[in-house]
Amino acid sequence: MARSPALRLVGRRLGAAVIVLWGVTLLTFIVMSTLPNDTAQTMLGLHATPAQVAALNKALGLNQPFWVRYWRWLVQALHGNLGTTLEGQSVNHELAIHLPVTLELLAYALVISVALAVVVAVLAARRPNGIADRISLSVSMIGLSASPLVVGIILVIVFAVQVGWFPVQSNGLGGGLGSFFVQGTLPAASLGFPLFAIYTRLLRADLVEQMQREDYIVTARAKGLSPWRVLIRHALRNSMFTLITVIGLNLGTLVSAAAIIEVLFSVPGVGSDLLTAIGNHDSALIEGIVFVFALITVAGNLAADLLYAVLDPRIRHGSTNS
Amino acid sequence: MAVPTPDAVLLTPGGPPALPSLLVSDRRIRAQRFWRGARLWIPLGFLILMLFMCFVLPRVVTLPSPTNGTILDGNDALFTPGHWLGTNNVGVDTFSQIVYGGQVSFEIGAAVTAIGMIIGCAIGIPAGYLGGWADSLLSRILDVLLAFPALVLALAIAEGLGPSEVHEIWALSVFSIPTFGRLARASTLAVRDLPFMTAARLSGTRGWRIIVRHVIPNIAPGLVSFSLLGVGLTIILEGALDYLGWGIPLPEASWGQMIASGQNIMSAQPQYVLVPSLFLLVTVVALNMFGDALRERWGEA
Amino acid sequence: MTEPLLSARDVVQEFAVRDSGGSWGGVVQAVSGVTFDVMAGETLGIVGETGSGKSTLARSLLQAPRPKSGTVTFRGTDLTRLRGRKLLRARRHMQFVFQDPFGSLDPRWRVRSIVSEPLLAYGDGSAGHRQARVDELLDLVGLDPARYAGRHPRELSGGQAQRVAIARAVALNPSLLICDEAVSSLDVLIQAQVLNLFEKLRSELGLSYVFIAHDLALVKQVSDRVAVMYLGRLCETGPGEAVYKTPLHPYTRALLDSIPATDPGAGRATTTLRGEPPSPISPPSGCRFRTRCPRAADLCAEQTPQMRDLGGGHTVACHFPLEKKEPSALKETAV
């Protein structure tokens, strides 16, 4: 074998990811072309004459066939130019302003949910079916069923309206770390709670299974290591793997959820930007944002796959059991 | 939205059961059996109650209108006589809105899940069973649909076609079809080459008969219990669409739209936003618990 | 000489293995050029270690999947040329029993439907007729229809499940049964019962068997002729008595020596195998056993030994077959 299996795997997955991304751009275009095409009308205002509208359509190339428009967009996008919004801004510029806000929010939500999930899962896995375990299962069942929207509403009522620790609406996450925590905690917690539920369940299941089934755990226990030590030093280390994979696979659903939360808390991220764009039929902006969302999703899946490939010894060594 | 991939949900129904100890007292076994039953019957009972409340009750009892009220009745608190869940700022009865909004939620949840299950299976089972280029092509299409932000597609369709219940069903189906498709494919792949499948083929059963008689009965339990999670997920997404104003057109009641309008009077009237939120939450919890309990049962069967 | 019931000629089966990530890992040469005949009414035992390709061979005979090359002629028809309905019709009289009794029964089906599946698939008789036939078959394999027909596989014991699989296999009155480790997963007592059932079916239905197992004693007990398989090739075939008494291939010798002696005074085996079987992805050149063979010479690496008959239908694929001597005399030659 000339190349390592892992390297070959990277190649294959990368190829598939590119195909999926391309499919998403095409699908976006198809969906956009079903929307009423009133870009020129919107730009010119209500009082524009049909002739003016037709002229602008021609100038923008909007009267051209679907494939021509798609091809032009694709070529431009490959050069890093995602087009112009209805308001005349470049889509790249728009993304540069709003994307970091969303990414910060996602990162904060992930940190909260993973940190909590690890602690709760370890406590729960220490004694399966014990009190901690039962509580964690119930709480995570609620989290699994809760939409970020509902979590957000409840958090706002409790912590913003009643207690008043946080603002009801967070206008922007900028302005230093302190301001970031004040503005960002409720949105991040709303996003993070359902995630926390998923991660806790997975991690707990994985830990319990390892503690019961894996020989090396039994060996470690037999050597006289304390249960906590075995759980944290041995089992958790292996389970984090599964967790990281799932985080990668879940990024896609997370960005969609972020859009709702951004609207709820008036966070100026790409999500709320996207909803405005859809309302305005701003095709270029929608295409740009959907592309970025898909990029995050696909990159998450790819990272999960590859991480697995790089770290899982069975794949690394290219096992050949028939 | 923030709900795990179908495979992940399916594989972790609360983790593997603890190894049974040999020294369990009779009482403990009875208690365990009771709780196992309770995990199935409590959510099921609640769901039946909810369905009764939404679909039967308004036919038996005359409820106040869910769309019109008089300003004189406005801002009633909880447990006001005649309006036991109160009214909103223009006097529309909250309970009535919950009932009619619930109808919409259940209808859409069931329809979207059924469409997803049927079309998803029609794509996923052949893809998984046949393999080869057909599988690669169909899987790529499902990948694209899954990588496409579900909400965006749903919003775009709702925006393009205009808000209505039927359009919302189709919009949300765009999300449920690839989810079920992928699950159906994965489960078909898992059973396709099991020895009993080979045995059935060698016994002379062929083609569609294998799929109908062997594949489908073996993957159905997983799909059905996942479909309950699917209904829950759809109800969540439906709420989000309504919340954003792209769902059920306005005078009609829906939970998401109740949350959206309640958000504006959150400080003065927190119950108006809390009531639909809690109904949304508890309904989905019940659906998920019921799905989990079913899976637990069928997994052992 | 009459025409054989089943004859395999140069059957080759290969698999492209993928590693768990899905990329290409190599080709496993599971079965490489296997040739043998099974006469009507005969039981051919095929014995070999785990990984020798026995099970793959069994499935290649059944065309599931079809072998890469070679022919499998059953009752005068070459199965490897047929597909679809024609293959089904030609294979009708060749049925199978697999190793895992539970694995080969659909867990969602009841015993009645499982046994009648081949009847239904081949369109045999009306529903009433099939029902009667199922009862008859269950009786034949020693299961009370009234008690067992309505059960699911999980409500059966391993032996009962295997009886159900056998009932399904003989439903169409086959002339040949391919048994792939059919009793290996059963307890010893149940094993004996199922073997007796096979024997009964043989005399009552005139069945022939290809009986595949790793247990030499078992194979010896049931077989008229025995074939020894190593790493995808047959190395020795012959009448059971001859192969066990005077093995010709060093591998057969080693296998026989590995059976623990039942007589405590007999002492330990003389030849033991060195090392592990080589990987079937890159098997040794020439004779595949040469890497572990005490008699290997340069010739063994250069030339693949062909099967040759050393008299009495006892054939061997070895450049330096053991003489027909008593095992005690072997010591001098083997060391």
List keywords for this structure.
heterotrimer; A: 322 residues; mainly alpha; 13 helices; disordered C terminus; B: 301 residues; MetI-like fold; 10 helices; 73% helix; globular; disordered N terminus
How is this fold's topology laid out?
The complex is a heterotrimer of chains A (322), B (301) and C (335).
Chain A: H1 5-34, H2 39-44, H3 50-60, H4 66-78, H5 91-126, H6 131-145, H7 148-162, H8 176-213, H9 215-222, H10 227-265, H11 270-280, H12 283-311, H13 313-316
Chain B: H1 6-11, H2 26-60, H3 94-130, H4 132-147, H5 150-161, H6 165-192, H7 195-202, H8 207-244, H9 255-264, H10 270-300
Helix pairs in contact in B: 2-3, 2-10, 3-4, 3-6, 3-8, 4-6, 5-6, 6-8, 8-9, 8-10, 9-10
Chain C: E1 6-18, E2 24-38, E3 43-47, H1 54-61, E4 69-74, E5 77-78, H2 84-91, E6 94-97, H3 111-121, H4 127-140, H5 145-148, H6 158-170, E7 176-180, H7 188-205, E8 208-213, H8 216-222, E9 225-230, E10 233-239, H9 240-245, H10 250-257, H11 298-302, E11 308-309, E12 315-316, H12 327-334
Parallel strand pairs in C: 3-8, 3-9, 6-7, 7-8
Antiparallel strand pairs in C: 1-2, 1-4, 4-5, 9-10, 10-12, 11-12
Radius of gyration of chain B, taken over Cα atoms and rounded to an integer in Å = 22 Å
The low-confidence parts of chain B are 1-18
**Helix- and strand-based class of chain B?**
mainly alpha
Counted by DSSP, the helix tally of chain A is: 13
Fourth-level CATH superfamily of one domain in chain B: MetI-like
Rg of chain A: 24 Å
